[in-house]
Structures are given as C-alpha cells and as structure tokens.
Amino acid sequence: MKNKPRKSLIPKNAAATPQLIYLNKDVSVLEKISQSGSNDVPVFISIKYIQHKHECFSEWSKVEMDAFWSFNTNIHNKTWQQVYQSGGKGDKTGLGYTVIDKQVYPESELKNKLSDDITLFELRVTQRIRVHGFRMGAIFFICWLDKNHSLLGK
Fold first, then answer.
1. End-to-end CA distance of the chain
2. Residue 123 and residue 133: Cα distance in Å, rounded?
3. Per residue in 114-139, pLDDT tens?
4. Residue bearing the bigger pLDDT, 68 or 150
5. What is the DSSP letter of 58?
6. What are the structural domain ranges in the chain?
C-alpha cells in the first residue's frame, strides 16, 4: 500500500503576496477634513488632546462605551451645521451643542494653552454622558470626558 501525500490544511495561495486593500484609494475624498470655516463638512473626531488625568475611557462601563461608539457613528454622519442646530436654550435635541466658558473648565496645561478664539463646548452622548472639546476645521477635538455630567459641577 502506497502512502498518499497528505493534503495541507493551509491553502497553496496563502503563501502568495497579499493584495493591499485600501479603505479609500482616492485621498481627495478625505480633503474635506482640512477645510476650515465651512459648516457643511462632515464632523471628524480626534482624542489627541484628551485630558486622561481627569477621566479616562478605562473608567467607563461597557454600556457607557457602547453609547460612546453610537455617538461616534452618529456624529460622523452629521455636518457641523447639524451639530450647531442641535443646541439652543432649553430646546436642545440630539447632540445638544452647548458653548461653555473656558474659565469654568478644570485647570490644565491644555486649557492654559488654548487661545481666546477657541470656543469650548459640550456634546451629549446620552442624557447623562457628555464630551467636551473644541472645533478646528472639520475636526472635533475631545478634551474632557464627562460620564456623570459633573465636569463643570452640574
């Protein structure tokens, strides 16, 4: 009885050079991220300046993180005009855009470095959870997490 060659569990094409897959081959589509001053551009989020010594995502529960990722998906489908329209005195909807005076934020190196022309604001993640930051171009830089809506002593 002859020994039959054993078939490999790994397909032969697995050793081939992988095909690179790009999320977006046309980088010009991402150009809107650099536009400034226009309110009809989509919102992008950055955590570059997050003040993790105040509060960190590691302190959030799974339910709170799920809410944040829903917020993240939601805001990426909005323009800045739609974000601004979500604010208002007592008639806030959705994201609840609310401008906050810089002086009421906790002392930090970041706060002291922000120029006076930067507008700080909060957005609603849920009825309780907020994120605070500023806009530069199309980017919303989240600076403070506020899972208990207590950052400003509310």
1. 83
2. 8
3. 999 999 999 999 999 999 999 998 89
4. 68
5. G
6. 35-146
